Amino acid sequence: MTTPFDFLRSRTIWYFALIFAIYLFTGCNNFWTPCTETPDEAFCQESANTDGGGKIDQASDKPIGPTRKFEEKAFIKVDPNNLKYVGMKGTTPVFLRDLTNGKSSWVAFQLNLLHSDLAERVKTNTDWAGFPAAVPEHDFLNAPVLVSGGTFYYLSTFSKRVYSFDPKIEVLVGVERTDSVQYFRHPEQNALAVTTKPPSGFSSAILIRWPSGGAIQPKYSNAPATALVMGDLDATDTVKNGTELIWSTEKAIMEVRHQGGPDDPSYPDSLLKIGLQEAIDRNEKDGPIQGGFVAKLNDDRFTDFVYARGSKLFVTSYIGRSESGIGLFADWPKEGLPSLPLERVKSIQAIDLTKEGYPELVVETDQAVHFYLSIP
């Protein structure tokens, strides 16, 4: 005679048998990935959408990690005829002022973006340590002066060459800048990129000074660059290929070029180019690409690319390789990112200005330099 207990026991055995069969044929990772295996909560949340090798499902468009927002706390107006932005010398904004007598003078500021009083957030800095004594053969209107990684450069309109200050040395001997010059400089690394005059048979060329030293001039049949960015975009990859140069026209990423390893020459990466173009085209597709920067803006393990397209700033994170180049990036939410509808963005830099562990954004436009505080 079958008792109620026998009935329940038989059903329980069948349930366990069924669960065990599912485990054998599918693997437990299809149901759950324990968060204790990874220090990154966002990565853990995504891991149910991974392939067998643990790679993130590149089709996912979910934002990466605990994203940050950026709130404007101060700005400094610029005037192309009188006051021009040179760049960030560490956490010091550096400008050049025309003295109207054929000479120029440095103007630097000290920032305190956390101060409650707006007037106290930007004050004149009189510490000139590390500044060149003077600007040689300077054409204020047409010869940009730049600071990158604490090193000062100027792009001469007389010789057309690109020089470092003190001592005066050509960055790459014999290379001439373009008249309508585009450039990139970095607040912390001695990285420099400048559009240059191409040799016969080419349409464009770029002078690249890598952060670790050494300079090259790749040449192209494409239209001249309108935006230049340098940074280690794929820093999370196993292969360590140095810094990348990213250059674009107003609509298209034309190349992502790796510096290469110690014994490897510089080379382009077609997959990163495809992936970055796909990411950028998700936002303001008809707006021009106006500049960008590579940095880690939050707490996750991914490298972020902040860029301007049209009148808005966007952030996308590099999440890993795919065989096609599609789905290499995941976008941040648009809320909390700066918008500058009446200004043209010229450059973007990211640097920790408050010593709180997160980079702030420094956005140069045709009208001002804006300082955005990173907030949760």
How would you portray this structure in words?
It is a single chain. The protein is mainly β. It has one domain (69-375): 6 Propeller (Neuraminidase), CATH 2.120.10. It has 3 helices and 25 strands. It is globular and about 60 Å long.
SSE topology:
Layout: H1 4-26, H2 41-46, E1 69-77, E2 83-89, E3 92-98, E4 104-111, E5 122-124, E6 145-148, E7 151-155, E8 162-164, E9 169-170, E10 183-185, E11 192-196, E12 204-209, E13 215-216, E14 219-220, E15 227-231, E16 244-248, E17 253-258, E18 267-268, H3 270-280, E19 289-295, E20 303-309, E21 312-318, E22 329-331, E23 345-351, E24 360-365, E25 368-375
Number of domains: 1
- Element order, helices and strands? HHEEEEEEEEEEEEEEEEEEHEEEEEEE
- Gross morphology is globular
Architecture per CATH nomenclature, i.e. the level-2 architecture: 6 Propeller
Would you count the extended β strands for me?
25
- Helical fraction: 10-25%
How many helices? The count is 3
Distance between the termini: 67 Å
**Overall SS class:** mainly beta
Q: How many strands, which pairing sense, and closed or not: the largest β-sheet?
A: 5 strands, antiparallel
Rg result: 25 Å
The CATH class is identified as: Mainly Beta
| Overall mean pLDDT | 85
Task: Report the β-strand fraction as a percent range.
Answer: 25-35%
Q: Write down the CATH topology.
A: Neuraminidase
